[in-house]
Specification:
The complex is a heterodimer of chains A (294) and B (318). Chain A has 294 residues and is an alpha/beta fold. Chain A has two domains: 32 residues, no CATH class; 225 residues, 2-enoyl-CoA Hydratase, Chain A, domain 1 (Alpha-Beta Complex). Chain A is built from twelve helices and ten strands. Chain A has a seven-stranded mixed beta sheet, sandwiched between helices. Chain A has a two-stranded antiparallel ribbon with strand order 1-2. In chain A, α6 packs parallel to α7. The radius of gyration of chain A is 22 Å and the shape is globular. Chain B has 14 helices and nine strands. In chain B, strands 1, 2, 3, 4, 5, 6, 7 and 8 form an eight-stranded mixed beta sheet that branches. In chain B, β2 and β3 form a beta hairpin. In chain B, α6 runs parallel beside α8. In chain B, 48% of the residues are buried. Classes of the chains: A alpha/beta (294), B alpha/beta (318). Chain A: Component of the acetyl coenzyme A carboxylase (ACC) complex. Biotin carboxylase (BC) catalyzes the carboxylation of biotin on its carrier protein (BCCP) and then the CO(2) group is transferred by the transcarboxylase to acetyl-CoA to form malonyl-CoA. Chain A: Its main location: cytoplasm. Chain A: Belongs to the AccD/PCCB family.
Amino acid sequence: MSWLERLLPKRNTSVDSRKKSIPEGVWSKCTKCAAVLYRSELERNLEVCPKCGNHMRITARRRLEKFLDPENQQEIANDLKPIDALKFKDSKKYKDRMSAAQKQTGENDALIVIAGDLLEIPVVCAAFEFSFMGGSMASVVGEKFVRGANYAIENNCPFICFSTSGGARMQEALLSLFQMAKTSAALARMSEKGIPFISVLTDPTMGGVSASLAMLGDVNVAEPNALIGFAGPRVIEQTVREKLPEGFQRSEFLLEKGAIDMIVDRRELRTRLASILSKLTHKKEPLRQVSEES
Amino acid sequence: MSMHFLEFEQPIAELEAQIEELRLVGSDAEINISEEIARLQKKSRELTKQIFSDLDAWQVAQLARHPQRPYTYDYLDSIFTDFEELSGDRAFANDWAIVGGLARIDEQPVMVIGHQKGRDTKEKIKRNFGMPRPEGYRKALRLMQMAERFKLPIVTFIDTPGAYPGVGAEERGQSEAIARNLKVMATLKTPIVCTVIGEGGSGGALAIGVGDRVNMLQNATYSVISPEGCASILWKSADKAKDAAQAMGITADRLKSLDLVDSIVEEPLGGAHRDTGAVSKNLKQRILADLEELNSLSTEELLDRRYQRLMSFGVYDE
């Protein structure tokens, strides 16, 4: 260090420390329009770009906490943990992949179930966590989904599921495939009891999750521009050996083809789903109640 | 038709070729070489026994896909009588990759539904290599609901690489078609007996695979994704299919030990294609035994057991 630097350390360090003192992620960039956005504003906006409306990924826990009324949220079956029944190992052990995912997400597995109220309508909600091994469905996801469905039956309240998943989890092999049958069976029971199930498909919902619980809503709702389908676009491209049409397997395409009922902006999901459910369960329009009260 | 030998069967193939040659010589030269032939045949049998006593998962996968393996139509011929095929989903098309219809098993009327692969190139293409499209699942659903209406048990045969990954299939709602079948089959008020006879490929297999009994032929496979698909995703190379097959545990005995399938139907030495009559006899016995037990249950008991069975799938800590 030269004498000059020794004389002027404050200035230098102050610049450095100011750089460092900016907490990580004050700014975010929209993944679509590349607009630079305030992290806090984006959070308030539920990870939807205020400039272009692009729906970016949101964690399962935040999604449910924001979707439900803030009071009376009660988590279901959060103590369920995955087991490596097959002692599966590819380039990494399944066990290690699990613990890495648990560490990264702070969740035990890829599904979270919370009971609560939606504009004062009692509901139970499930959400997939994409950051947990691609939101893949295996034993724990299947079982938690069933517990959610059972809660809905016991409490005679609607069930809502937000899916985002690459499909069935290969590391639990056939156990994962059979979760498709298990979750669908639980939904069959719910249907028989006349309990509504709303499936919200978000980006992406593919494979075994799309070919089971996610397509079985009494009402199927998708967020804008979500990739939804059975086979992945790359697999299809390799099979048919041609470029896929623009917008293929996106929400708007599925609406056109008749696979979903509607496309709803994330910021409107609370009010729109509450309105649908209030009619299915013969309750007053929730927003009208609120506006009468206020 | 001459026997088709797989790569791992090459030593057997060589012996068999020798036997064939001797036979030709024998008929020409009038030399008595039957002793030599018998010796070689014995050797061939022993070698087959030895090779087949210790197959790895990838070798079993090859057997499950053997080009001469019996398909659904073969079992319709050997196990059932008076088959009347029913076609079409009444909405879009008839899918030739799934066949179904009314038949009798020992005089008992049943609905039979199964994947069907083709034998020659032309038929393979017509049947899309046994890969169904949504209309196939919807035809199956229509037949299953008809079976429920007329109180007929359902017998399904699973043998598919998987659902067809095509543009049209996606446009017509492949996911929904599979999902719908899973949901309806869970509560269908008639007995359902499913058997994996060859490849149990993922969602395309499961779509006719939810039942009261799920059996597997000894050399059939059942998996969430093909070994090649799994290898190319997790190992980043389809060449690792052998490792993937092993890791996923796709064979009947492994899946039985996990309580995911109910029974294993024994195949003749060397695989089902060596003796369709023998495997058919075993399979028929299994189906009849299952039907007898399921027919004795009340609808409520039947559905309750099926539901409990489905709910039992999964391994986790609590």
